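Q: Hi! First time asking for a complex rather than a single chain. Here are the components, and I think there are two in total. Is that enough to go on?
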Amino acid sequence: MSARSLVAFLAVLAVIGLLAFGLLNKGGAKVAVGDPVPDKALSRLPGPGHGSLAEERGKWVLVNLWASWCIPCREEAPDLERFYRRERDRGVTVVGINVQDNEGDALAFLRAHPTTYTQLRSVGNERSSAFGSIGVPENFLVTPRGRLALIWRSPVDDQILRERVEPLIGGRAVD
Amino acid sequence: MLLLVALVGAALAFVGPSAAVASAAPQPQTTVTAIEGEVMCPICGTLLELSDSPQARREKVFVAKLVAAGRSKAEIEDALVAQYGPEVLAVPRGSGFDLTAYLVPIVALLAAIVALALAVARWRRDGRDTPGAAGSERPLPDGDAERLDADIARYDL
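A: Yes, that's all I need. Here is the structure of the assembled complex.
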């Protein structure tokens, strides 16, 4: 291979490499049932302090991604609160994660739609990307061992919680 | 005279507090338009000034409040990044990995210039090496030079 051909080959390789890098970095993570739940320490909402899903290890956790500007999020908040109150004595909890929002609006949302379960706040779309989220609201059921048991990329309501979530908790899905 | 003093005093009492409040109100250091043209609606993937989603509208309110509070452009951008993440900026910051957004095009341009210069030099060298080409310094074979001169003289070229 001549020097000229080698240079041309390396140039083409560099272009392809840049293209591949761009494509690989586009979009969020891909999560599936059975995967470990994405987790990191996040600010509590309201503060102070931080919290994480790891603190709920040993319980079933329904993770709810939401944003203040999201209308379906407003509609499902009361159903999630009722679910939490109904299930919390059975080793089940709910953790809300505010995404793609500003803190002021998020706090105003919680004042308008109060919840008693843990609320955390993620800056920008970092947690959305970690969960492979395509919008809000999205809900994820996590086993006591921290594995995803259900991925529900839509709002939930009483019917969905009773028909899709509670049977998994009652049936003790195997990790 | 006393009436005049009283009137002036009353006028000052009325205008004074308003003037004080007006002077205490923060002066905007930038405009909403200037900010919206340089930040993104992260969900929409478009400039905020071109976006009209529910999230974009909330972000615009957030920006407007900071502008009205007299924050500088840099302060507003920092606040947006703190709330929405670095992806809210339309123009990458010149630090960390974002620096590559500025360095890569410069490096690519320099590499292209160097490659072009080398190619031109090579073409010129190849041109001089071609037999009979302008600038070629290879002498004619033996006898050809004399025959050439004789032909030129005979035909008065």
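A: Chain B has two domains: 25-91, 99-154. Let me know if you'd like any chain examined more closely.
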